[in-house]
Amino acid sequence: MTKPLEGIRILDLSIALTGPYAATLLADQGAEVIKVERPGIGDIARWIGVSVSGMSALYVMCNRGKRSIAIDIRSPEGSAIVKELAARTDVILENYRPGVMDRLGLGYEAVREVNPEVVYASLTGFGSDGPYRDRSAYDTVIQAYAGLAMNQADPADGIPVFLRQTAADKITALYASQAITAALFARVVGKGGQHVELAMMDAVASFLWADAAGNEVLLESDHSQNSSFVAGFRPIRFSDGWGIVTPTSVSDFTGMCKALGVEGWDDPRMATLEDRNNNRDVSAALVDMCYARAANMTMAEATSRFEAQRVPFGMVLSADELTRDPHAIAVGLFEERVHHVVGRIRFPRHPTQFRGTPVRATDASPALGEHTDEILTELGMNDRIADLRDSGVVA
User: Fold this and answer.
1) pLDDT digits 0-9 by tens, 137-182
2) Which residues pair with 94 in a beta bridge?
3) Rounded to whole angstroms, how far apart are CA atoms 206 and 100?
4) Contact by Cβ (8 Å): 248, 240
5) Choice among 12, 43, 72, 169 that is catalytic
6) 32, 63, 119, 294: least buried by Cβ within 10 Å?
7) Mean pLDDT computed over 349-368
């Protein structure tokens, strides 16, 4: 069976995480991806974080299944080669500041002249308009500006908390991959190619407001509740670790109390979710007792009790612990391969299970310029490779 995006060609001009991760998700789904990198240095992601043999885990995860060609796109000859590749592709993905690609002669209007049907995706920090359009926009900048850091603040002290991961980048990558497939579908039904613009600011705000800006959505609310309805949840300490219980329904709340041996769950003031909200002093006291009882239980004992009461719960696992968890093993959550540069690697499978067009996480991330000669030969430039390399246009 073919993968869902088989036959689609993507030219990945992006760097770091946002664009590359979006392109890798599409590669998992069958798209052919050519990654253009700067000679000598390559994508900055190659050098960030844990690395082996000069290749980082970040680069491995965000560039699987691609072919790499090293081109100096700042040179006229390099720009011309990229433009020729652009003429033969379905999707172009870039994440530079507004105007950069135009100055290189590779902006949407220039590419559309040679490929009217192209889907051209531009990912930026603050968008192509407005007073902040030219600001540098790293992940933490967007976490701060779009509300994510303040959303994570402890209500007790109000100090913003930044997620210890590039959440804004990854959120934007997910929106980008969906937007690109939507634009491809629009092209299939006769609406032609188009320029797709996505700002990290917009993506994170959209993501956050779905469930964490209640008072900002309902402008006539009385502000008696936190804008984020999960703000009050806190981890439970067991004798040998941590977990979380999410007692949303009446049966969830009752089950948690029973599992932890706490009386009072049958109090009439706890009969419904509305009753619990209206009598928060009583419900909070019961929850505190549950937490106190849990401290004397092991995670294994609590797991058995919660499962018996059908309570929604989760034990807090590290990334390493997840790889050894029996459920993750049973469903094949992780795959292991041997990478031709870094050796043994392990990563999660592609998250969506396409039953009619099965997908599998793509092959290893490429070394810098690993496919330069191969791609230039496909363009009919095999007789120019030596001269282009000698002049520093390619590597």
Assistant:
1) 999 999 999 999 999 998 889 999 999 999 999 999 999 999 999 9
2) 122
3) 26
4) no
5) 169
6) 32
7) 91
Token pair of 392, please?
Answer: 């520093």
The whole-number average pLDDT for the span 12-37 is 97
pLDDT value at residue 230: 87
Q: Tell me what pLDDT residue 117 has.
A: 98
Determine the pLDDT at residue 1: 66
First to last CA, the chain: 36
How far is Cα 134 from Cα 334, in angstroms, rounded to an integer? Answer: 40
Gap between the Cα atoms of 170 and 269, Å rounded: 43
Residue 195, φ and ψ in degrees, nearest 5: -95, 120
Domain definitions of the chain by residue range: 9-208+330-390, 236-315
Residue among 375, 366, 373, 374 at smallest CA distance from 395: 373
Which single residue is written with the structure tokens 């008072």? 215
Distance from the Cα of residue 1 to its chain's centroid: 27
Q: Whole-number mean pLDDT of the chain?
A: 96
Q: Note the pTM of the prediction, 2 decimals.
A: 0.94
Q: Cβ contacts of residue 119 below 8 Å, gap of 6+?
A: 90, 91, 92, 180, 183, 184, 187, 193, 194, 196
**For residue 59, which amino acid is it?**
Y
- Which of 3.40.30.10, 3.40.50.10540, 3.10.450.50, 3.30.70.20 would CATH assign to domain 9-208+330-390? 3.40.50.10540
Q: How many CB atoms lie within 10 A of CB 9?
A: 15
* CA–CA gap between residue 105 and residue 75 (Å, rounded): 10
Strand, coil or helix: 258: helix
139 is catalytic: no
Could you tell me which of 182, 200, 198 has the C-alpha nearest to residue 143? 200
Q: Which fold has domain 236-315?
A: formyl-coa transferase, domain 3 (3.30.1540)
User: Within 97-240, where are the H helices?
Assistant: 100-103, 108-114, 139-145, 148-151, 167-186, 200-209, 214-217
Pairing of strands 241-245, 313-315: antiparallel
